[in-house]
């Protein structure tokens, strides 16, 4: 896929950054269906080209953020060699520099969150509560909320099963499955469909 073809997935004015980062490398970019386990990934192919996959359902700013994350893998491996840790200090420095360089691409209310994240980039998007909250706000329109926004005794649906919030633990939330009676611990940033007001 060419950089030009990527335009429909990206915010405006990203192409100069991508052309600079792509440089002389041959990169296969595959747009995939939504995957719950990951937003994107990177791997080097046997012919020394590179492959990046990204979920097609990501909104443009998140798509660009994930693409930047994956390109940081490629650039750090190319610069420092393939013996470095995938999310080690070399990748963090590369990703940090790319985020700061392209900060103007992001909406103003997101720039502060990105710059804070860039101080110590995390390997997993879900490890940054501020980013998760920012990019999941649109879910609220369909009745989706974070578990941390629920009150005790609120009922909700998660993975097509009904639950009730019992109480907040130290970091997580204790909930009972109303279909099988078992209790489960939920992360505060789990996205669920609220059932009762």
From TrEMBL:
InterPro entries, sorted: SprT-like_domain
Protein name stated in the entry: SprT-like family
Domain SprT-like, residue spans: 37-98
UniProt source species: Chryseobacterium taklimakanense
Highest rank taxon of the organism: Bacteria
Biological process annotations from GO: response to stress
Pfam family, one: SprT-like
């Amino acid at each position: 896929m060419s950089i030009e073809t990527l335009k429909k997935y990206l915010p405006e004015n990203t192409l100069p950054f991508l052309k600079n980062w792509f440089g002389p490398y041959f990169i296969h970019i595959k747009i995939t269906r939504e995957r719950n386990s990951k937003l994107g990934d990177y791997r080097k192919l046997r012919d020394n080209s590179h492959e990046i996959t990204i979920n097609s359902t990501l909104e443009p700013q998140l798509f660009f953020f994930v693409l930047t994350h994956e390109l940081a893998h490629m650039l750090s491996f190319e610069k420092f060699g393939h013996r470095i840790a995938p999310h080690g200090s070399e990748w963090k420095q590369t990703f940090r520099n790319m985020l700061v360089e392209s900060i103007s691409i992001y909406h103003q209310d997101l720039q502060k969150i990105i710059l804070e994240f860039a101080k110590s980039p995390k390997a997993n998007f879900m490890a940054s509560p501020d980013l998760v909250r920012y990019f999941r706000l649109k879910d609220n329109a369909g009745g989706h909320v974070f578990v941390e926004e629920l009150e005790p005794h609120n009922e909700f649906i998660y993975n097509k099963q009904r639950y009730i919030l019992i109480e907040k633990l130290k970091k997580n939330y204790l909930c009972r499955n109303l279909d099988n009676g078992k209790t489960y611990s939920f992360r505060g940033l789990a996205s669920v469909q609220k059932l009762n007001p």
